[in-house]
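Treating backbone geometry as a discrete language has practical consequences that deserve illustration. No coordinates are needed to read the tokens, only the vocabulary itself. For completeness, the protein is quoted in full, as a sequence line and a line of structure tokens:
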Amino acid sequence: MFDSTKVFLFLTAAVLLAIAPGPGMLYVLARSLAGGKREGVLSAFGTFLGGMVHVIAAALGISIVLAKSALAFAAVKYLGAAYLCFLGIRMIVDARKEQGGGESHAEPDLSTVRPARNPLWQGIATEVLNPKTALFFLSFIPQFVNRESGHVFLQFVLLGTLSVFLNTSADLIVIVLAGPLGNLIRSSAVFRRRQRTVTGAIMIGLGTYLASSESK
């Protein structure tokens, strides 16, 4: 069903993106520091469920696009690859701005965040209501769907579930190591800049490779 080369690329990119400190990881870290490990786990499970909502919705949308037109499906993949490159460029630019003392990108003091009354539902809402998550899945997952094999909806759901699972696994590791990781992420501007730069370069390379491979 899947192309082995693209599966390898997907796993590599998904793991690297999962371990990169992003908004979801910082949210779970904040909940852990504010309310303990139990609250962190509930928040991580909430973001997992919220991510799956986006996966199912995106899978339905891509399936409808494919049913309408193969050309439209190709357009979605090219636009998605371009969006990945855009995200990568923006990450690198943000990192350089922070290094140059320009626009502030400092993270909030996570230890001051108040505990959520219901961290599970807040985690779901936080993820479901994040339009960037939906846009990311619509641009990232279709790059690895093998249209010739059919079962586009199933492929999308499997890849999306794996991506969300990897993200949640990284979040759970953050919960276990909330203290030292929290101090590193909050206090080390160099760490944040390097993380943004490396992740941005990965996104640009991935988007460029996928766009060029589709054109062949």
User: Anything to note?
Assistant: The CA atoms of residues 1 and 150 lie 8 Å apart. The mean pLDDT is 78.
